[in-house]
TrEMBL record:
Stored PANTHER family: FRUCTOSE-1,6-BISPHOSPHATASE-RELATED (PTHR11556), SEDOHEPTULOSE-1,7-BISPHOSPHATASE, CHLOROPLASTIC (PTHR11556:SF35)
Keywords: Carbohydrate metabolism, Hydrolase, Magnesium, Metal-binding
Gene Ontology molecular function, alphabetical: fructose 1,6-bisphosphate 1-phosphatase activity; metal ion binding
Protein's name according to its UniProt entry: Fructose-1,6-bisphosphatase
Gene Ontology CC terms, in alphabetical order: cytoplasm
Organism, scientific name: Haloferax volcanii (Halobacterium volcanii)
Gene3D superfamilies: Fructose-1,6-Bisphosphatase, subunit A, domain 1
Amino acid sequence: MATTDVNTADTARDVRTIDGVVDIIASTAPEIRTGLPGRRVTAEDENPSGETQMAADVFADDLLCERIGALDGVGEYASEERPESVDVGTGRLSVAVDPLDGSSNLKPNNTMGTIFAVYDGPLPAHGRDLVAAGYVLYGPVMTMIVARNGTVDEYVIHDDASHELVREDVSLPDEGSVYGFGGRVPDWTDDFEAFAREVEQDASRKLRYGGSMIGDVNQIL
């Protein structure tokens, strides 16, 4: 997650709202994680991406929509689990989430997490309107990566819903030791396939793919 890809919030109110979104994501994460064991079954619907919803997807989405939507500075909430964004207030910031990335990993008990992004303006928004972004990883240790104010930081989220800064100014390593490619190989573009084959030439690098973007990105980061 490059720091230059996330803009700086313009006003003190926006900063407070962004901090509020991060706090809500962190404080809700333990509740989402605790609720996973009893929600490893499919729901009756598909999400707009055509994926079968898990009960845990709906559970996490409902929690986040209610809590993020209660922030004064947030005007819209969008989720992978909803066909359209929801008007939640009069604030100018919008929040988009994937409440449970990798929820298909629930049954095999593999990695998953929550992804969020905050935009300065209504949805759909341009990338240049992105003012904060991050994700929570529900691993053996619950961690959160947050990009805001021109930097990327890592936090540990404790069971009491508090979060503790453990690493500042996180960046991709100059020479990575692991890599992960998503998607079906027949669907790769020629340029991407050439890049993938070049990466594979280095025998010191190890392939890692866990079925969730968060888990794969976190290993590389």
